[in-house]
Amino acid sequence: MHDKFKECLLEVYRAEQTGEIIFEALLKNARNEEERFIFASMLQLETEAKAIMRPTLMRLGLPIEENPLSRQQGIKIGQTFQEISFEDLILNIKNSVESIYLPQYEELATLITEEDKECIWLAKFMGDHERALLLASNNIINKSKEHIKPFTDMLRFPIAFR
How does DSSP classify residue 3? Predict the structure, then answer.
């Protein structure tokens, strides 16, 4: 497997770690049950993605333990989000996914240098994962009825809304 793919995969995994910490912070500061459901579902999306990535990471000899820098970055970002309105949080998530994370996640598919079905599947899944988060953010902003359905459909263990 090409080293560039491994590097990018590890960066994506660490971004999931950071995202998980950020969504935990947002969940703690949710102002109502709807926000709580949305942030819990986003947290679940990050957690499940990490679990899905781990077998491939291990096979490629990459670390799966929590990266302290990813955790610190997530805590720092989560703290800056404490006083931001829900609408601005979702807009921030949308913009971050669109400009930073989606391009990085889509890059995975361009770095596969051999016919490794597991890596091909994982690269596609991670791109779909990030596109679903972007679509759901747009849906929330546009007040669509089933706003987070794009990513809750991906969850193996979805969060139930009361």
Answer: H
